[in-house]
Design a protein that fits this description.
569 residues; Ribulokinase; FGGY_N; carbohydrate metabolism; ribulokinase activity; seven-stranded mixed beta sheet; alpha/beta; EC 2.7.1.16
């Protein structure tokens, strides 16, 4: 019997990776990564135009580069016959949105709009729409909108409608010029198939859509802004199709560019972190998955719906058909470790790493491993890019308590690792206190593969065994699994994601088990974390909000005040 394959394409924050997978076994045959040439645009546009604080944009051409470079490359590396590839699956950061023109092309690629920041892709971590998110939350509370409870009672600036509302208010001309607003995930499947389909996964978690009720009523959007009244039938057009279904078939034009045969199945797209859930086999209630990278996304499969504070979304059939899927998250995890290494580590540590032929992260981890829990005398809050769950407040910021003149770099590094584990424990307890069971923990993504100290800290702080994905490309594997379901059993794939998980999902035999002595100490430290969490996040959040507002004040260049005075004279 001829082996069949699917391709999973994982669009991350800094790069895209393509994975070719054996459908029968889940064996990863070949992979290739294409870094985004433009990276994250958070300071200037490609033409040098400055951006305001809290902006995070991307270039859609970088996504096409991933398709046109990495897909042919995995075919070349694998030496397989292209006729044996039966499907393509896409996963993507979210909510990453872009406006399209009437031809379905990104507005920012039109020379008329290329200098306008609002015409570009707004990356998931674009936080400049925080005021708009608060407006949506306030209106939903005032109108007693039922959808609000599915999002923990508060709307995030990262989601689709706050970002569109920011465009309406700050650049109405861009809003009018846009024929469609779409998740980048759904735009890529649109490009591959020429079939305009929106994913129930992206719409459910990021755009207030619900399987039973659909979107909120038009009256809600009209009350939000007059230009919003008809947005659903105009700029939000497109059938919402369930995760695990087929978005369409690969067009001849795209097949020729990718080196594949036209007509193969293209799966409905999925949020990147969510694709990791079936890839580790977490397809049953009580299984909790941490997708750990620059940020962490937590997904919990459950058989009931409960209103829980700070949940990013509760979506029926959202990730695994037949169940409710909850999402929560921490906005800065790997990013916070990277910030410390890139911006604050002393030069002698960098030199030591260079001489040892190791990364700075490796050196700090080795040094931090020598400390016992609590020995550094430090505790940190993991809000270096705001708090997604459970406080849903992008204006909060990180802090480290207990610093002295004797504090060492590795102690600070360890406190940052611990802070993210404390944040995860808070999220887990938020579920269990609401009566939603958490039975098993799985971790996937780049961090669990690289940092053993981090994962042992997580096991100790949560007091739970943690199983690790047996793949460095877990999200791409999950996307490939959904591609096998979109292709269907008759074409050599599977008819359900449960069948696909039985054959293709992977976890390592070795797991991280809590160390009783460490658990006891961390229980005491966690009490301090909770005190700080509630003080800075609930009681005195104005402190961090005020500091952030001061940070937004425009920097004055030397001599600029003098020039202003002369001009006034």
């Amino acid at each position: 019997m001829t082996r069949k394959y699917t391709i999973g394409i994982d669009f991350g924050t800094e790069s895209g990776r393509v994975l070719l997978v054996d459908v029968d076994t889940g064996e990863e045959i070949a992979t290739h990564v294409t870094p985004y040439k433009h990276g994250v645009l958070d300071e200037v546009l490609p033409n040098g135009k400055p951006l305001q604080p809290d902006w995070a944009l991307q270039h859609p051409g970088d996504y096409l580069d991933v398709l046109f470079q990495s897909v042919p490359e995995v075919l070349r590396l694998s030496h397989i016959d292209k006729k044996d590839v039966i499907g393509i699956g896409i996963d993507f950061t979210s909510s990453t949105i872009l406006p399209l023109d009437q031809q379905g092309d990104p507005l920012c690629l039109d020379p008329k709009w290329e200098s306008h920041p609002h015409s570009w892709v707004k990356l998931w971590k674009h936080h400049a729409a925080n005021k708009e998110a608060d407006e949506i939350t306030s209106l939903a509370i005032e109108r007693k909108e039922d959808f609000l409870h599915r999002y923990g009672g508060k709307i995030s600036s990262e989601w689709m409608f706050p970002k569109i509302l920011q465009i309406i208010k700050e650049a109405p001309e861009v809003f009018e010029a846009a024929d469609l607003f779409i998740e980048a995930c759904d735009w890529v499947t649109y490009r591959l198939t020429n079939n305009l389909i929106r994913s129930s996964n992206t719409c459910g978690y990021k755009a207030f859509w619900n399987k039973e009720a659909g979107y909120p009523e038009a009256s809600f959007f009209k009350a939000l802004h007059l230009r919003f009244e008809h947005i659903l039938e105009t700029k939000m057009r497109g059938e919402v199709r369930s995760i695990g279904e087929k978005a369409g078939e690969l067009t001849k034009e795209m097949a020729d560019k990718l080196g594949l045969l036209p007509g193969i199945a293209v799966a409905v797209g999925i949020i990147d972190a969510h694709a990791g859930v079936p890839a580790v086999g977490a397809v049953h209630p009580g299984q909790f998955v941490l997708a750990m990278g620059t940020s962490t996304c937590h997904m919990l499969i459950a058989d009931k719906e409960e209103a829980i504070e700070g949940v990013c979304g509760i979506v029926e059939d959202g990730i695994i058909p037949g169940y409710y899927s909850y999402e929560t998250g921490q906005v800065a995890v790997g990013d916070s470790f990277a910030w410390y290494v890139e911006q604050a580590v002393p030069s002698y540590v960098v030199q030591e790493a260079e001489e040892a032929g190791k990364s700075v992260h490796q050196v700090l981890e080795e040094k931090a491993t020598r400390y016992k829990p609590g020995q550094s005398g430090l505790i940190a809050l993991d809000w270096w890019n705001g708090n997604r769950s459970v406080l849903v407040d992008a204006n909060l910021s990180g802090t480290i308590i207990g610093l002295t003149l004797a504090t060492k770099p590795e102690e600070i590094y360890r406190s940052l690792l611990e802070s993210t584990a404390f944040g995860t424990r808070k999220i887990i307890e938020n579920f269990t206190e609401a009566g939603v069971v958490v039975k098993e923990l799985f971790a996937c993504g780049g961090l669990p593969q690289r940092n053993k100290l981090l994962m042992q800290i997580y096991a100790d702080i949560t007091n739970r065994e943690i199983k690790i994905a047996n793949s460095e490309q877990t999200t791409a594997l999950g996307a490939a699994m959904y591609a096998s379901v979109a292709a269907g059993g008759k074409n050599g794939g599977y008819d359900t994601i449960f069948e696909a998980a039985e054959s293709m999902a992977k976890v390592k035999e070795e797991a991280f088990v809590p160390i009783a002595e460490n658990v006891k100490i961390y229980d005491e430290l966690y009490k301090y974390y909770l005190d700080l969490h509630d003080y800075f996040g609930r009681e005195k959040y104005e402190i961090m909000h005020g500091l952030k507002n001061m940070r937004m004040i425009e920097t004055v260049e030397p001599g600029q005040n003098n020039r202003k005075l002369e001009a006034q004279k």
